Amino acid sequence: MTKFSSRFLFILISCVVLITSCNNNKAGGESGKAVLDTVSLSSKNFSLAYQDGDKIVATSIDTMKQISFGGATDPAISPDGNKLAYTLSDSAGYRSIWVADMENKSQGKLQVNGNNYYQAMWSADGGAIAFSIFNRKNLWKIGVIKTDNSGYVMLDSASKINVYAPTWKNEKEIIGQDLTKLYTFDLTGKLIDTKLIADLIGKEFSIASSNRFFYTKDGAKLIFNAGNTDILDGLTGPSEAVYILDLASKKVQRISPKGINVAYVFVTADDRIFYSGAEKPFAQSKIYVSDLNGNIKTVVDKGTNPTGALK
């Protein structure tokens, strides 16, 4: 697999650039749109999106075709590779999610009843997006909206608990966590299952609000990243790694190797595990992809927060 750094000169010549403007002087107001250029994207084959410093990048898996733009965070490529969701922040620090169509160059803000929502997660069919949203009671909740801006709902809106890090269990269910419990909701917002995280994965792991849990396609395994007891010289704070829990046997298998701190994991609906991790001196993070058996490849030599399209 060709790495990003080995194609740098080619990319400078051939990439399509998106320039993002976030000039907004009104608190909670509209953020600037991303400005697409006039190059046709009809022959593209985007399969990966990730953060590279102060810009986000959508790329083909061999990194020979790319789109990049600055001023945005939380890249989320759609399952078909045709759209890119991302977070923009205004001058007051409010966040909102925007979606760019990389083929017809349209782009728009998700019309959500709130002024602080971020971290889009596409459903497997690309028809809906889940995200984190800060509600009027100063709690973090999960929002879901269709990509045509219809059907918005805030899950578990009446409770007094925070729910973090939403992911799709399947097309009809969404999961999130509150540091100690894992919740499953249906798309109407009804809570249908609650499990103690320690009962699932054991008590030796530490969970942060950014740690995500993904079910495999068959629902038999749970993939997650979590803090562990590894001592990594030069790392400030706890080390994290990627794990797979077999729900039947209760066995936890480590996927990412020791010596790498993994702050972010994403699992596609076809069970490919993308994650970003850094080795000592922990100054630069690489992006890796693994299958369920732990066969790992390096995808990008410099990047974080990857999301992948379906094959």
What does this structure look like?
- With 311 residues, this protein is mainly beta.
- Among the domains are: 1-88 and 98-109, no CATH class; 204-311, no CATH class.
- It has 2 helices and 27 strands.
- It has helices spanning 8-14, 197-201; strands spanning 16-17, 19-20, 34-35, 48-52, 55-59, 66-70, 73-77, 83-89, 95-101, 107-109, 117-122, 128-134, 140-146, 153-155, 164-170, 173-177, 181-186, 191-196, 213-215, 221-227, 240-246, 252-254, 260-267, 273-279, 285-290, 296-300, 304-308.
- The strands form 7 sheets. Strands 1-6-5-4-27 form a 5-stranded mixed sheet, with no helix packed on it.
- Strand 7 and strand 8 form a beta hairpin.
- It is globular, with a radius of gyration of 19 Å.
- 40% of the residues are buried.
- Global Rg: 19 Å
The biggest sheet amounts to:
5 strands, mixed
CA distance, first residue to last residue: 15 Å
Biggest β-sheet: strands ordered side by side in the sheet: 1-6-5-4-27
What amount of the residues lies in strands?
A: over 45%
The SS-based structural class is: mainly beta
In short:
The chain is mostly beta strands and 311 residues long. It has helices at 8-14, 197-201, and strands at 16-17, 19-20, 34-35, 48-52, 55-59, 66-70, 73-77, 83-89, 95-101, 107-109, 117-122, 128-134, 140-146, 153-155, 164-170, 173-177, 181-186, 191-196, 213-215, 221-227, 240-246, 252-254, 260-267, 273-279, 285-290, 296-300, 304-308.
